[in-house]
């Protein structure tokens, strides 16, 4: 018996359980045909329904229990009826922060066969890796609400950019750019954010000196957003802050086939804690429960997890077959112009794996 990879599964809310079921289906197939791989899945029922029943998003010892796992596979969190800032801060953001998953890796890549809203653009033109700072910045949670309900009410939300936090994410991105022999673009906003982003730019400049062989660029986030649409080819590896990374990766999803194809990994590179793999999209209440959610983003995140486990071959196979499905166009969900159900897409992926 091989040592199993221990995976905590948190299907979560809305379409989360629908897409995660397909990811687990594919992982279970892989385990069934590869005697060198074994997964131990444990499910956690946490999310908004759990909150309605128990008054909390996860068990009190939840973080402690998750800590035993090699990885967390998460669907989505958030549903109408529970305020978003509670559901997200008490579950998703709590996990990212407790486990110091300070790197959020989001490939913005136009796969072969994927539709794009852009004109005259091919997969060669959109192939970026966005490295989003995932532990602090605008998401530090520092702030206050003063004089609530009074006419002079005040809300404070302080961005926190530590030297340690800024250096480690920028260095992580430089290492990837260097290894892959690609350029690195920093996206910031120092013209307006005169403390945090001036600091960010300084750190980027400083660290770039350690990597003289890496071509660098620096953009303001507003102009970068325009170039994402008008000339995405200029971006290869991208490093940016928590909030900017959140926004530009949904924009990136928008030019590479939509939310159903956008994958992400929350990494603790030192592996002191479990990392978490999840699609970029949310719980999509507008389509939840209809079996029409696209599970391909969640499958791509599973591919990232396989890679993280050192199973590069399987990771590659899953991604290649996602591309094949996009090229064939026979079994796709409605967001990609097909009429297949969520589970038919997962079944088809298993069929294609069988044919390899
Ligand atoms: P969303 O990503 O859930 O949905 C945006 C749009 O994309 C919707 O029209 C939805 O139908 C579509 N979409 C998303 N995923 C899809 C898929 N797999 N297949 C087909 N279409 C898909 O964003 P939202 O509507 O702004 O947020 C809904 C809820 O999810 C909110 O509570 C929000 O806070 C939460 N949220 C959670 C996460 C997460 O858990 N990682 C991420 C984003 C938003
Ligand atoms: C994402 C999501 C989360 C974020 C929300 C749900 C807190 O939008 O993973 O992109 O902003 O990080
Ligand atoms: Mn987001």
UniProtKB/TrEMBL annotation:
<protein>
    <recommendedName>
        <fullName>D-malate dehydrogenase (decarboxylating)</fullName>
        <ecNumber>1.1.1.83</ecNumber>
    </recommendedName>
</protein>
<dbReference type="GO" id="GO:0000287">
    <property type="term" value="F:magnesium ion binding"/>
</dbReference>
<keyword id="KW-0520">NAD</keyword>
<dbReference type="InterPro" id="IPR024084">
    <property type="entry name" value="IsoPropMal-DH-like_dom"/>
</dbReference>
<dbReference type="InterPro" id="IPR011829">
    <property type="entry name" value="TTC_DH"/>
</dbReference>
<dbReference type="GO" id="GO:0051287">
    <property type="term" value="F:NAD binding"/>
</dbReference>
<feature type="domain" description="Isopropylmalate dehydrogenase-like">
    <location>
        <begin position="6"/>
        <end position="349"/>
    </location>
</feature>
<keyword id="KW-0464">Manganese</keyword>
<keyword id="KW-0560">Oxidoreductase</keyword>
<dbReference type="GO" id="GO:0046553">
    <property type="term" value="F:D-malate dehydrogenase (decarboxylating) (NAD+) activity"/>
</dbReference>
<keyword id="KW-0479">Metal-binding</keyword>
<dbReference type="InterPro" id="IPR050501">
    <property type="entry name" value="ICDH/IPMDH"/>
</dbReference>
<comment type="similarity">
    <text>Belongs to the isocitrate and isopropylmalate dehydrogenases family.</text>
</comment>
<dbReference type="InterPro" id="IPR019818">
    <property type="entry name" value="IsoCit/isopropylmalate_DH_CS"/>
</dbReference>
<dbReference type="Pfam" id="PF00180">
    <property type="entry name" value="Iso_dh"/>
</dbReference>
